[in-house]
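To the wet lab folks,

You asked to see what we're planning to order before we commit. Fair enough. Below is the target structure as tokens, and below that is the sequence we designed to fit it. If anything looks off to you, flag it before the synthesis order goes out.
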């Protein structure tokens, strides 16, 4: 038996000389590694991946949903702690609440889905950030009243 293997332009032969098969057509050349069809390293046709943590558009955020999310004492405390508008790590040991990690994750999700916060992903670290300027524009005085109360 005779086997022909192709490695780019190199032909490697193994086996006996009785095999009369010929190799198939060579593969079409492709763009060099790291170059897409537009030369920028990105494929022109590749759609942008959706965010794993979508937030509602601020025009769709309803005051009733915001207040419902803030009705829980832990979520209200989270909003008070992140009221500076900076990104804060979501790791459970930072928050020092006496709840399970899954419960804290549920609270973060509820705040995000109500439109109060956004999740920022930096590699393996996930941060939570209050949408302070957007909330102040949509519901003037809301966050200030929460901080005073």
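Sequence we intend to order:
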């Amino acid at each position: 038996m005779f086997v022909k293997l192709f490695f780019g332009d190199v032909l490697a032969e193994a086996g006996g000389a009785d095999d009369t098969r010929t190799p198939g057509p060579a593969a079409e050349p492709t763009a060099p590694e790291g170059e897409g069809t537009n030369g920028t390293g990105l494929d022109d046709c590749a759609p942008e991946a959706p965010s794993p943590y979508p937030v509602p558009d601020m025009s769709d955020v309803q005051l009733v949903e915001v207040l419902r999310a803030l009705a829980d004492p832990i979520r209200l405390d989270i909003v008070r702690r992140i009221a500076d508008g900076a990104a804060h790590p979501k790791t459970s040991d930072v928050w020092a609440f006496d709840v399970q990690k899954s419960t804290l994750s549920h609270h973060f999700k509820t705040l995000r889905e109500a439109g109060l916060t956004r999740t920022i992903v930096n590699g393996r670290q996930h941060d939570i950030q209050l949408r302070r300027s957007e909330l102040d524009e949509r519901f003037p005085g809301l966050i200030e009243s929460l901080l005073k109360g």
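Structural context that might help your review: Residues 34-38 have pLDDT under 50 and may be disordered. The helical segments are 63-70, 73-81, 92-95, 101-113, 132-138, 142-148.

Thanks,
Computational group
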